[in-house]
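User: Please predict structures.

Assistant: First:
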Amino acid sequence: MELNEYQRGALRTAASRDKRNELLHLVLGLVGESGEIAEKFKKWVRDLDSDESRIDRADIAKELGDVLWYVAVLADYLDLSLDDIATTNLAKLASRQGRGLLGGSGDNR
């Protein structure tokens, strides 16, 4: 599946842009779903001794799907295409790698 195809599909289940506070809803939803992934890994560390064979990959995949949905709909709300975002991101990372700057910090490396 292409990213823009996914984005169009995600929009079929999204609220209208005109809904009051929809932008804030999308941002908070993205943070919340990301937090759910972090919470699952916290419990994996706490309860399962960080044993990678015991990661519930199906459950993590569901949560990653929720994150992807929020990214897709938020991007559309801001008139951004997932294909463009992905292409730009890979180019940025390739540039950093080529300049030996993958490690470190700061957005403008």
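Second:
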Amino acid sequence: MADRPYDYLSALGARIAIARNELGMSQAKMAEALGISLRAYQSYELGKRSIPVEALVELNRQFNVDLNWILLGAEAVRMTHDIAALEEFEVALDKHLSESGTKLKSEKRGAIAARWYRSFLEGKEIAMDDVHTWIELLRE
């Protein structure tokens, strides 16, 4: 069952207020930073009106506020998780290349990492044995 718009706006407003508080800013300072009137900003925090996209973009641009959390109440931990997985893959790839004495041009190595990462984002796990096959195909 879908939430009523007011319930959504109340929760959205509460998350905006929490973000502002965590930044240690007054409502007036936040409104000024976002380029909106204090009265409009207060109506967003109170859940009376939806915050415009432009203000959300500014909130993210200036303060690196997680918009996924502001809009949906869910943290965007995926970015950190994805980068950690990519780093782990690249370490494993470098280790394999070093141990096997295989040399690859950087663009070929990059293509392997990009293909693996794309599959990772799509939720299709690629076994390192398959990556080793790619390496053999691209070997210099």
